[in-house]
Amino acid sequence: MKLACVIHRYGADIAGGSEGHCRSIAERLAQNHDVTILTSTAKDHITWRNEYPAGLTEAGPVRLRRFPVVRQRSLHRFREISEAVFSGGAPESEQEQWFRENGPEVPELLAWLERHGRDFDRILFWSFRYYQTFFGLPLVADRAILVPTAEEDPVIRFGLLDRFFAKPAGYLFLTPEEQTLVAQHTSQPLAPSAVIGIGLDPPRQRPPRTIASVSQPYVLYLGRIDPNKGCETLLRYFLKRQETAGGREQLVMAGPANMPIPDHRSIVRLGYIEEEARDTLLANAAALIVPSPYESLSIVLLEAWNHGVAALVNGRCSVLKGQALRSDGALYYHNYDEFARGLDRLLDGTDFARQLGQQGLAYVEREYRWPQVMAKVGRLLLATEGRSVKFKI
Amino acid sequence: MVSVERVMREIEDDLRRERRTRLLAKGAPTEYRDQELYATVERVLRRAVESRDHGAILLPELISDDEEWQLETHLTFSSHRPIVGPVIVFFKRRVLLPLTRWLFEYSLENFQRQQRVNRILFACIEELAIENARLRQDLQGK
User: Fold this and answer.
1) Between vectors from CA A226 to CA A274 and to CA A6, what angle results, nearest 5°?
2) Under a CB-based contact definition with an 8 Å cutoff, are residues A347 and B25 in contact?
3) What are the C-alpha distances in Å from A267 to residues A12, A338, A389?
4) Within chain A, what is the greatest distance between any pair of CA atoms?
5) What is the pLDDT of residues B54-104, one digit of tens each?
6) CA distances (Å), A247 to each of A9, A241, B115, in order?
7) Cα(A105)–Cα(A68) distance, rounded to whole angstroms?
8) Which of these, A314, A334, A324, lies nearest to A356 by C-alpha position?
C-alpha cells in the first residue's frame, strides 16, 4: 500500500511519546509498504520554531516531507484561550481557534493533502489535538486512520469533537481505556479500530555499571519532571513518607526538569540521561513510580515491566490503573495513604515486587512485542478497505 | 500468581479500618461505629471522587447559566468605548497584565482548586441523589 503518516514533528532526535510512536510504526510499516511522513519543520514543541529545512528528504526507510510553520506559538495567547475553553461553555469557533493556537500551523501541509491525499491508500494521523491532524484529517477522511493519543484532559470535552471523531475511516488506539474515552465523546458509532499500544524489543543485556549518587534501594521516576506529570504530588507524598516512616530509600528522578526539585538527601536528580544509563536505572530499580494523572499509554511503565520491574501508578488515571490490573504488574494509589502503603509493599524486602515485575514482563511478552503490534496494524489497514475508495495493490 | 486486584482490596480494607478508627477518635458521627455502615458511606463518596466524570454532572446542567456557578478562571479584556477602546484593551493586555500576572497566577491556582472541590461536591450530591432514587424504587417495588 501507499501510506502517509502525518505528525506534528518528526526526527530521531525528538523525544516525545506520540512522535516516537509514529516513527517506530512508520519505520516498520516501511518494510512492506511505501511510506511518506508529512510533518512540520519544527523541533521544539513549545514554540514550533522552524529548525529543519522544508522539503523532501529520505529518512532511513521512509520518505520525509516537511512543511514550514507560518506562526510560532504565542504562549501568552495559548494560555489565555486554554483558560477560556477549558472552563467550559466556549463556542465551537473558540474551540476551533484553540487547535489553531496549539499549532504547529502548517497550511502548506493542508494544501498538499488536498492536492495529493488521494494518491495514498491510507493516511495515518497522530494526536488529534494538533493543528495538522485536526484540520488535515477531514480533508482525506475516507482514507484516514486516526491514532488519537487521547487523554482524560479538558480538550477531550470540546463539543466540536463529536463530529470530528465520526470522520476517520479507522482508529488505532493505545489502550482499551483510550478507546472507551473516544467512544464516549462522539454520538456516532466508532469506525473499525484496533488497540495496538506500542511494541518493545527484549531489553539488551548490558554489563553492570553504577551511576554516581544513586544507591540501592531506590524507586525511579523517569520522564519529564513537570507538575502536569504529577511530579509535585509525587515529591510531596514521597517526602511525607520519608518523614513519617523514616524510609531509607532514594527517589531517583531522571529527565529534564520544568519545576524546582527540593534539596533532600533522599532525592537524586539526574537530568537528561542517555539510553544506556536509562536501561541501567530501570533494570536496578526497586520499583518505578508513574504519578501522571493523564496518559494515553505509559511507555515507561511497559519499559519497566520489560526489565521485570514492578511499579506504583496513579490510580486516578484510568489508563494506568487499567494497565496495572490487566498485567498484575503494578499497584496503584488514589491518595497519600494508598501511596505510602503501596510503596511499603513494594519495598518490604520479600519476593512480592519481583513477582509483580515478572507478571508485568509476561504481559509485555503477550501483548507488546513488535510482531503482535504490527499484525494488529496490518489487519486494521485491511479492515478499513471498504471505507475508502478502492485502493491499488 | 499475585492478583493486583486482591492486593489492592487488602490495602484499601486496611486503610478503611484505620481511617474509621482515626475519625472515631477525633469525634466523628457515632454511626461510624457500625463498620458496614461506614464502609457504605465511604464507598458512595469514593465513587463520587474517583469514578465519576466531573465534566458530566447533572446539577450544573440544572443551574444552566454557567455564570451563576462557574468560577471565571480566565481574563477577558474589553472596553465599551468605541474609538479609544482598542487602545485601552491594548494597554490592559500589554501593560497592566504583565505587571499583575503574578497575582493572577497565584489566584488562578486557588480558583482551580476551588473549582475542583465544587465539582467533587456536585458529584457527591448526585451520588447521594442516585442512591436515594434507587432506594425509593426498591421501596415502591416491594
Assistant:
1) 70
2) no
3) 31, 21, 57
4) 66
5) 777 888 878 766 666 666 666 666 777 777 777 887 777 777 777 777 777
6) 42, 7, 35
7) 8
8) A324
Q: How far is CA A27 from the centre of its chain?
A: 17
When scoring A74, A75, A83 by the number of chain B Cβ atoms within 10 A, the one with the most, hence best to mutate, is: A83
Q: Respond yes or no on whether the N-terminal peptide bond of residue B98 is cis (omega within 30° of 0).
A: no
For the segment A208-247, what is each residue's pLDDT rounded down to a tens digit? 677 777 788 899 999 889 888 999 999 999 999 999 888 7
Can you list the alpha helix ranges (DSSP code H) found in chain A? Answer: 17-29, 75-86, 92-102, 107-116, 131-136, 161-164, 176-184, 231-245, 275-284, 299-306, 318-327, 336-346, 352-367, 370-383
Nearest-angstrom CA–CA distance, A132 and A112: 11
**Collapsed DSSP state (helix, strand, coil) of residue A171:** strand
Distance CA A358, CA A207 (A): 21
Q: Which tens digits make up the pLDDT trace of A86-142?
A: 877 788 899 999 999 998 999 999 999 999 999 999 999 999 999 999 999 999 999
φ, ψ at A124 (rounded to 5°): -95, 130
Spatial distance between the Cα atoms of B94 and A239, rounded to a whole number of angstroms: 40
* Assembly ipTM: 0.79
At residue A166, the 3 state secondary structure works out as coil
Please name which of A255, A256, A268 lies closest in space to residue A212, comparing C-alpha atoms: A268
**Closest Cα of chain A to B37: distance in Å?**
21
For CA atoms B40, A326, A355, B50, give the dihedral sign: negative
The verdict on a CB contact (< 8 Å) between B73 and A87 is yes
Q: How far apart are the first and last CA of chain B?
A: 44
Q: How far is the C-alpha of A291 from the C-alpha of A230, rounded, in Å?
A: 5
User: Taking CA A49 as the corner, what is the angle to CA A45 and CA A51, rounded to the nearest 5 degrees?
Assistant: 105
CB contact under 8 A, B1 and A331: no
Q: Do B71 and A334 touch (CB under 8 A)?
A: no
CA–CA distance, A350 with A357 (Å, rounded to integer): 13
Nearest Cα neighbor of A133 from A149, A154, A152, A153 is A149
Which stretches within chain B are classed as H helix? 4-26, 35-46, 58-63, 85-91, 97-141
* A375's grid cell: 499484525
B2, B50, B115 member nearest A316 (Cβ)? B50
A–B interface: beta-carbon pairs under 8 A: 60
* Side-chain-side CA neighbours of residue A184 (13 Å): 15
Question: Cβ A356–B2 below 8 Å, yes or no?
Answer: yes
Distance from CA of A371 to the nearest CA of B (A): 27
CB-CB under 8 Å, A83 with B74: yes
B115 vs A contacts (CB less than 8 Å):
87
